[in-house]
Amino acid sequence: MAETIQRPSGPAGSISEEKRQRLLELVRGRTAARPTDLAEDEVMVWPSLVVVEALSAVVFTFLLLATAILINAPLAEIANPTVTPNPSKAPWYFLNLQELLLHMHPSLAGVIVPTIALVAIGAIPFIDRSPLGVGILFTSDKGKKITIFSAIYTFVLVVALILFDEFVGVTATLQGTVPEVVYQYIIPVITMLALIALLGLLIQRIFQPTRREMVMAFFTGFVVAFFVLTVVGTAFRGTGMDLFWPWDVESAH
C-alpha cells in the first residue's frame, strides 16, 4: 500500500521528490510472540483445556475424599502450652528452611539463601526473553533431557549432603578448632556455589544448551532441592530432629 504525502511547495518549503514519497507496506508473517502459525498445533481453551482441567479437579477431589475415608490420619494429643513437643516442627511449607537450619547458620538458611532464590526466580523473565518455544513443555527434546539430568543430579547430591552432615558432620568435626564463621557460613556457601557451578558446567559440556535450557536446568535444581528438603524435614526427622525412618514414628515419640 503506497501513500503520497503532499507537502507545501515553494522557496521556504521546497522538498525533494524523494522525500515527498513515502512507501508503506503491509507484510504478512510470523510475529515474535508466535513461534508457530500452524493451525494443527493450536487448541481452543474451550472446550479442549477447560474440560480437561474440570475432569482433573473432579478426579483429584474423589481420590482425596476416598483417601480421607479409607486411611485414618493419626492425631496427636491435645496441645499443652507448658510442654514443647519433640520434635517441634514448622508448617510443612517451611520445613525445607527448617531442614537448612540444621546445616548452616540461621541467618544464612532462613534469610540470605531464600532471598537470593526468590530474586533469581523473579529475574527469569528478564534473563530469558526469547519468544521461541513459549507454551511448549520443556521447549524441546533436549530440554527434557536437561530437566531429567538436573533433577537426578540435584536429588543425589542433596540426599548425599544431608547424610554426610548427619553421620559425619562438618560442625562436629571443626567446632572448637576453627572460628564459627568457617563452618556456619564459608563452607556452606562455597559448597552451594560450587555444586551450582558444576551443574552449569556439566549441562554446558554435555548438552550445549540455549539460555532458556540453562535456566530450566537451574530452576529444576531449585525445585528438586526444595522438594527433597521438604520431604526430609516432614517425614525423616524425628526426636531431636535426628534422621529416622517414617515407619518408626511411634517409637521415635
Write up what this structure looks like.
The chain has 253 residues and is mostly helical. Helix content is 58%, strand content 2%. The chain has a two-stranded antiparallel ribbon with strand order 1-2. The N and C termini lie far apart (81 Å).
Radius of gyration: 29 Å
How many strands appear in the DSSP assignment?
Answer: 2
Q: Report the order of strands and helices.
A: EHEHHHHHHHHH
**Main sheet attributes: strand count, strand direction, barrel closure:** 2 strands, antiparallel
- Which overall shape is indicated by the principal axes computed on the Cα atoms? flat
Mean pLDDT: 84
Question: Helical percent range?
Answer: 55-70%
Strand order within the widest beta sheet: 1-2
**Tally of helical runs:** 10
What structural class do the secondary elements suggest? Answer: mainly alpha
What proportion strand? Answer: under 5%
Can you tell me the residue ranges where pLDDT is under 50 for at least 5 consecutive residues? 1-5
How would you concisely characterize the structure shown here?
With 253 residues, this protein is mostly helical. The chain has helices at residues 17-20, 45-70, 95-101, 106-122, 124-127, 141-167, 170-174, 180-207, 211-235, 249-252; strands at residues 2-4, 21-23.
SSE blueprint:
Layout lengths: L1 E3 L12 H4 E3 L21 H26 L24 H7 L4 H17 L1 H4 L13 H27 L2 H5 L5 H28 L3 H25 L13 H4 L1
Antiparallel strand pairs: 1-2
Helix pairs in contact: 3-4, 3-9, 6-8, 6-9
Keywords:
single chain; 253 residues; mainly alpha; 2 strands
